[in-house]
Amino acid sequence: MHNRYSRQQLFSPIGENGQLLLKQKHVLMIGVGALGSASAEALVRAGVGKLTIIDRDYVEWSNLQRQQLYTEQDAQEKVPKVIAAKKRLQSINSEVEIKEYILDACSEQIIPLLADVDIMLDATDNFDIRFMMNDLAQKYQIPWVYGSCVGSYGATYTIVPGKTPCLHCLLAAMPNTGMTCDTVGIISPTVQIVAAYQVAEVLKYLVGDEKALRKSYLTFDVWQNQHYEINVEKIRNDNCPSCGKSPSYPYLSYKNQTKLNVLCGRDAIQIRPAKPIYYNFDQLAAQLSPYGDIQQNPYLLSCQAEDYRLVIFQDGRVVIHGVQDIQKAKTIYYRLFG
Hints:
Blueprint: H1 6-9, H2 15-23, E1 26-30, H3 34-46, E2 50-55, H4 72-77, H5 81-92, E3 97-102, H6 107-110, E4 119-122, H7 127-140, E5 144-150, E6 153-159, H8 167-171, H9 181-184, H10 188-206, E7 216-221, E8 226-231, E9 259-263, E10 268-272, H11 281-288, E11 293-296, E12 300-304, E13 309-313, E14 318-321, H12 326-337
Parallel strand pairs: 1-2, 1-4, 2-3, 4-5
Antiparallel strand pairs: 5-6, 6-7, 7-8, 9-10, 10-14, 11-12, 12-13, 13-14
Helix pairs in contact: 3-5, 3-10
């Protein structure tokens, strides 16, 4: 297998020395869905030494359209994504050490895994975890690459602690567009483009070519043929609670995490965001209408789906009726609300 990486080594910014460096590096990835599948395969084929993959979900039929590591058999058997991913990735490159964790990522569980991590890659589907990753990156001085995609729109940004603005600087407060892959869909070219940019940034960093890292926040719409790069170098905020001069790492604290409560005797789970979110009910009704019958008044919106009923309040609280399992409730919530 001496020539496995020969074409990659011919690329002068990597070369033989870069390939040796890759073999010594450890990448941690949260999420092995669409972005995670594409990025994990690319990194394993590139010969990264160790890859840690974290995901809480299992393979479903709707994943197969864009999540390239999985098969129909995985969906039939509802195999956890990290298990199916590891099996496929090891068959691609047995030289790579792959550690898999079936976890609902939270800071307490992730911190013990960071000891020898060189860079983190965001392949998650919600901003709770992204802001947690951002604070972990700043606290433990580990670079990470943000990525998101929905519909035909994608975005990515590379964050190097102490050198670039962090995600908190960029977004200032928890965003909520209401758009997710489950409400407005996703096409696979969007996924592949974001993953390609993310993996390129990871490879640059791992081979020591930091000057080649992209400094801009990149967004695109592959369907509308739009591509933008936003210069964000000057928005770094010395008072940022995540990366400023006196950081408090707010998204590692319990009070800034989404809360889940089982409502006893009601066969329901309430999900309360860390901060109030004020939805446009008319817009939300349009997004949720494919899932069931919608009813609304000035105070709440209800969606009766096939297996459960959602009730969304003006302050962003969501009650999911017909569900007793917290993990299932989280899956429904993040799929529909991001």
